[in-house]
Give the backbone structure.
Amino acid sequence: MCGVGAALALRAEVGIGALRAAVAQLAERQQHRGPDGEGVWDDGQACALSHRRLAVLDLSPAGAQPMRDPGGRYTISYNGELYNFLELRGALEACGRSFRSHSDTEVLLAAWAEWGPACLTRLDGMFAFALWDSAERRLHLARDRAGEKPLFYAQVGGMLVVASELRAIAALPGRSWDLDARGVFDYLALRYVPAPRSILDGVYALEPGTRLVVDGGSPDTDVARLPARRYFAFDRLVDPVAAAPEAQADALEDALLRSIERRLLSDVPLGAFLSSGVDSSLVCALAARRLKRELRTFCAGFAGSDALDDETAGARRIADAL
């Protein structure tokens, strides 16, 4: 989990100093998301990016962010992991692209430079990012298909500000925040606030499977009305399975194994959260089978909690059996 930060001047009177201060504060407020490094970048005029790094792939400085492409046109602050980055890297090398790191960030940046926003349909992973296009003077925001990685944005003091966490935006000076009545209702009813709303009035969450484009120096920009462009929707998927139950079970196991295997690529030790439920138990069992070694598992419990709410004993039995 990394921390993305961005600030874009919407009005001409917003100076680079204000942008730099905003992204520096966003990085500070998201320090817990990335203890392995901090980076800031700006174009000297209209856009600034920050990043808090939790290193998973390529622990070297070559994987640090914000990262620029070799041509200098694109700069990205990215949170997430691309499970198919090696396949994408091979396809990009066939297009003539070269790489200096082992990071998926560099692959994503090259994919955008090669294919533009259409690259989003090729990505298999969890991600949220802010990408500055210096040629078109546009800030691009994107979020993964299922919305695993969060991305919030708001207008503060003539700037569009972007962060991985709502509270990082809420802490910025220059604007006070009220609760969003519909957001509160949704939270009480659903235990979460569906995008594009948030619990705060004026702070918006980018919807899963969408991207957003914001032009720099656009004083008439209404952040509440920015049109998200959908690149993926689950309701477009058609279930192709028409086989016998046994064949369906085999197909499901194969799909789970392939999915889990993609998620086991890491340059740091791996672990998994384990409850006593079917889902996490199945994932951990298949991961341990694929790793062919002991898998470290973790479960949270609360002292004095009702036995019906405490899954630690069941999780321990499952962990011992793995």
Summary: DSSP finds eight helices and 14 strands in the chain. Helices lie at 16-29, 85-94, 104-115, 166-170, 181-190, 245-262, 278-291, 312-321. The chain has a mean pLDDT of 91.
